[in-house]
Design brief:
7-stranded parallel beta sheet, Rossmann fold, alpha/beta, binds fructose -6-phosphate
Length: about 240
Amino acid sequence: MNIIITKNYDQMSSEAYNIVKELLIKKNNAVLGLATGSTPKGLYKNMIDDYKKGAVSYKNVCTYNLDEYVGLGKGDKQSYREFMRAYLFNHIDIDLNNTHLPSGKGDLQKACDDYNKKLEAEKIDIQILGIGANGHIAFNEPGTSFDSVTHIVNLTPKTIRDNARFFDKLSDVPTQAITMGIANIMKAKKIVLMASGENKANAVYNAIKGEITTSCPASILRTHSDVTYILDEQAASKLKLGESK
Ligand code: F6R
């Protein structure tokens, strides 16, 4: 397990980009596992800026996102599909046909099964993760089995409140999502979890120092053979110093 502690959000983002860039240079058909939310926006900005400098290309890159809200999808401003277009896909040379998210509309069980089939057939090179203040990864809320694969999830009131900032009002936040399961995430060759801000400090502490328990879904990542935590000082504030790399 690698822990990188950075001064701030911007440094966290560029450390994460260094890891992604190394892969892109080595493997032009890399498979990236991507996340939404506030945490990876800086990483995506680094990806776009470097692409615009001509340093990397995404022509043959393929992506799999962690999750999508139930009821939202292509064309819905708050869907994760549109988030990814706005913050990354529209600004790089990726083929949109190579960008995958679970479908939040139509037959939801079929959407889960289809996504699982895709994930079984692929090996994600780097999975990017954020962490919820309650320790969730993707939308695998506390209590989710470590064996879970893509499934429909009822969002907790806390997650709904945390995500309300992306919507006009609290009642607009969907109450369900489709998420990759923890077993899908653990299959990635490499996992990079980023966390920024004091509100993540407890979750980070529990993930890295606490018991490995479904009460903190991120705690299972410690059993992965190649996991890197990139934390800004505030997110790392509950860990003892001297562990940074
Ligand atoms: C997003 C996702 C979530 C977020 C987490 C942190 O695709 O799966 O697990 O990574 O909720 O969200 P932010 O980054 O907004 O603090």
